[in-house]
Amino acid sequence: MIMRIWHQSFTVLQDLPAYELGLKKRIDEVIRPDTDVVLHGQIPGTYTNDYPGSDLAYGVLYWMHGLQWIAAAREAEKQGFDAMVLASIAGPMAREIRTIVDIPVVGYGEAAFNLAGLYGRRAGMLFFIKERLDFWPEQLRHWGLTERFAGIEHAGVRFNDVLAAHMDDARMGEVVDKIVEQGEKLVRETGADVIVPGEMPMNLLLSKAGVTEIAGATVIDGIAASFKMAELLVDLKRVSGMRPSNHGYFHQAPDRGRFEQVLAFYGLDDLGSRIPSS
Questions:
Q1: What's the CA gap between 49 and 47, in Å, rounded?
Q2: CB burial string 59-91: b at 16+ within 10 A, e below
Q3: What values do phi and psi take at 4, rounded to 5?
Q4: Can you tell me the distance from the alpha carbon of 23 to that of 88, in angstroms, rounded to the nearest whole number?
Q5: Buried b (16+ CB within 10 A) or exposed e, 216-226
Q6: N or C: which end of the chain has fewer CB within 10 A?
Q7: Pfam families, per this entry (predicted)?
Q8: In this structure, what DSSP letter does residue 45 have?
Q9: What are the pLDDT digits (tens) for 147-186?
Q10: Residues 6+ apart with CB under 8 A from 265
Q11: Is residue 194 a contact partner of residue 120, using CB atoms and an 8 Å limit?
Q12: Comparison of pLDDT for 138 and 73, the residue scoring more
């Protein structure tokens, strides 16, 4: 039985053709033959440059852009997709999205850090958006994973370095070496047994370079983890009927009609149809 998964990026994929091509290649390598993944990104013009890092430095802009993810989830369900993968380490609005759709929704960071517990005792994270330093401890608390969190370390590179490595194989070695060097520092200073490469472009780069461990610590392949988790959750829904909780304030679903009314009130009822696929 064919399984259709909606991939949602926090980037405008049309602005990043080398990254988009790398994503498609890696996703095709990890999914099952009967799984069909359709890539989606943010609406063209969402950001003032080719990567959302400058906006993501501010909590209010992060949450405002997250409205596209709610609209995308609604659209994914309407189009008959079986699951949705939030291909961003933060997984914006994941908990809220699960209350408005009846398909499995997998956030990359949430899946990666939960999976890390099967590979080691404590997980650390590498990241390149320096402005989000304060965000991550709070996000791990939100996921209920604080005790397992070893700490964070800047990757020593920025997005443009990672993008250059995706565009030019000759640049890959030096960029990956720098990330590995910082990963070794993370393991040495925090005792991390597992490393989650933060932003998805960096995660993809390490996967392309074949980096599966750093200083003995397992490196989580976020793309593989996210899509295999999505396949698993669809399978579990099909064979056992398991679905996300609908109990309590954080998980209960609003009336679907009222949800649609509120979207229309704010002029967002057609936002999902503007989410581009590639």
A1: 5
A2: eeebeebbebbbbbbbbbbeeebbbbbbbbbbb
A3: -110, 125
A4: 13
A5: ebbbbbbbbbb
A6: N
A7: Asp_Glu_race
A8: T
A9: 999 999 999 999 999 999 999 999 999 999 999 999 999 9
A10: none
A11: yes
A12: 73
Rounded Cα distance, 182 and 198, in Å: 13
Q: How many C-beta neighbours within 10 Å does residue 95 have?
A: 15
Task: Take residue 151 and report the two structure tokens written for it.
Answer: 């700490």
Phi, psi values for residue 31, rounded to 5°: -80, 165
> The tokens 């380490």 sit on which residue?
89
Per-residue pLDDT, averaged over 55-63, amounts to: 91
pLDDT tens, residue by residue, 98-135: 999 999 999 999 999 999 999 999 999 999 998 888 88
Domain boundaries, the chain: 3-274
**Whole-number Å distance between alpha carbons of 184 and 252:** 42
Q: Quick one: DSSP state of residue 89?
A: T
Residue at token pair 């099967």: 118
Distance of CA 117 to the CA centre of its chain: 18
Cα–Cα–Cα angle for 248, 249, 250, nearest 5°? 100
Q: List the structure tokens of 73.
A: 């989830």
Q: CB neighbours (10 Å) of residue 278?
A: 15
Q: Which letter, b or e, does each residue of 240-258 get, where b requires 16 or more Cβ atoms within 10 Å of its Cβ?
A: eeeebeeeeeeeeeeeeee
Q: Are 40 and 277 in contact (CB under 8 A)?
A: yes
pLDDT in tens, 76-105: 999 999 999 999 999 999 999 999 999 999
Q: How far apart are CA 174 and CA 270, in angstroms?
A: 44
Q: What is the pTM of this model?
A: 0.95
**Which helix (H) or strand (E) covers residue 222, if one does?**
helix 222-240
Name every residue whose Cβ is closer than 8 Å to that of residue 182 and which is 6 or more positions away in sequence: 126, 153, 154, 155, 156
